[in-house]
Amino acid sequence: MRDYFYSYLKSDATPGAAGNMLWAFIYIMLIFMGLSIAVIAMNWLERKVLAHMQVRLGPMRVGPHGLLQPIADAIKLLIKEDIMPAEADKLVFWMAPLIVVTTAFTTFIVVPFGPQHAVTDMNIGILFMLGVSSLGVLGIVMAGWASNSHYPLIGALRSSAQMVSYEVAMGLAVVSAVLMTSLHGAGIYATGGGSGMGTLSMIEIVRAQQEQQAWFAFKFFPLGLVAMFVFAVAMVAETNRAPFDLPEAESELTAGFHTEYSGFRWSLFFLAEYSAMIAVSSILVTLWLGGWLRPFPNLLAGPAWDLVFSLFPGLTFLALAGLTLFSAARMPKLRYFRVQTIGLAGFGALLGLIGLILFISPVRAWVQDIYWFVAKVAVFMYLYIWYRGTFPRYRFDQLMKVGWKVLLPTGLGVLIVTAIVGVL
Amino acid sequence: MAPVATPFFFYLLSGLALISGILVITRRNPVHSALALILTLLALAGIYLMLYAPFVAGVQIILYAGGIMVLFLFVIMLVNVGRAEKERQFNKQWLLAIAATVGLGIVFVRVFTSSQTLTELLKRPLAQLPETSNTQQVGFSLYGQYMLAFEIASLLLLVAIVGAVVMAKKRI
Lengths: 424, 172
What we know:
The structure holds two protein chains of two kinds. Chain A is mostly helical. Chain A has helices at residues 2-10, 15-18, 21-53, 69-79, 90-106, 125-146, 150-182, 202-211, 223-238, 250-253, 263-288, 303-310, 312-330, 338-357, 361-390, 396-423. Chain B is mostly helical. Chain B has two domains: 7-92, Four Helix Bundle (Hemerythrin (Met), subunit A) (Up-down Bundle); 131-172. In chain B, helix 1 packs antiparallel against helix 2 and helix 2 (30-50) packs antiparallel against helix 3 (54-78). The N and C termini of chain B lie far apart (58 Å).
């Protein structure tokens, strides 16, 4: 058993490729845990950042700076009464949130957090991710229909129309990135003549970027950048987020497709929405921004630079700890705030401890790929909040116009020009 | 690694496909039928995976389960479901249907029991396709050997799209 446990650590393949069931299970649990924590953190961050953008304070009451607010919300949702409309289609109503959550989490099987940090590597990885995430629409449509109510139905119809339209533009952008893996390849893909075999596997796509010494966002400038832009717009529409959040436009449809859901079922939709956001952001990071690769892996190569870049995860946590301790020191010196101040200082100490652990040599080597991947995804998660705070919501005809008349032709054009440039 | 293409999974997936296929025609509610059809399509995708055709399985999920079925549901929700439920579900052509089914069944039984084909099937070694190159293989045969057929099919699809737009819009 011990040997079985340790044997995987020495290999440099994914648990799926190594055929190690135990580690695959551990990875699934870790991803599940990490995602839940990320969703909780994102919930707090979104409310805080949006509030600060609108010159408000945001949650301040539950815990210092509202840090415990998401947990309080989660408890509230869990103990809330679970209402099912009398005329609802029971089975479909019950199945819809499960399907949405399952599809949102299943996509993470192939997300490469590092060359060996993925549950498994499929040779149709990117296709699998797009396919499974497109099944999420079914859950939304089912939820809207089963509620047997007007707002959810309209929300579901809008949602399905929107997601089917933007999937096309998204697919074209992805194809142009996949095309880049085969064009002027080097290393294991070289079959002579400068161009090699393309690949759909998520890990191989990142390896191709490493071998070609360019993130695909900067390859064939500006084609990669344009394709990334098309994907970045389409992914916001895919996840029903502002400014494309028409399916849940609260001024018109109260809450869209999940109007009739309450309590735990509603929180499943919430969880699925945020996991889907993380999933599409990871697709973007994998395809265009070099996945787990640290900045300049070829230009700034060598053991010295490796050491410098591997210190980043620990330093990030130490910086967070410093910020937290600084806030703790700035808390009002009143008896009423004493518990909160101690709690905040304890949280800062915990962050600092994690930072120090990340400096240990084997841990450092183990986490640095994950760190760079998560850091890149975090940028896009912040952008999601930023979009919500900045852009007004589109009207539905404008949304369709953007999808079919702007993004689709742009994606097609980029695809064709990429193919031509690559063959020249 | 041990192959996952065990008979257990074949029976599981084909059983799922058959049961949900029967549900498609017996459910009164068209939305339930559509959902059962999605289950059938997903089970078929699983069978494609067992046949070492991951690309076809992925495309099956994206196009059929993700794309076409969403449009199906979209249309079903727009029409009046209440009226459709009151309509008669089966028409009176069961005599013809039974005749056709029996005929097809006889053909199947003949094929599987004719000693020559069966022994030939058993003697042939199981095809060990290189799994890693499945997508490339599909690409090569689609754009190499079957280039003309592929292009004709795409032209046909284009004409169908234009035709749909012409029929739907009064003034273009």
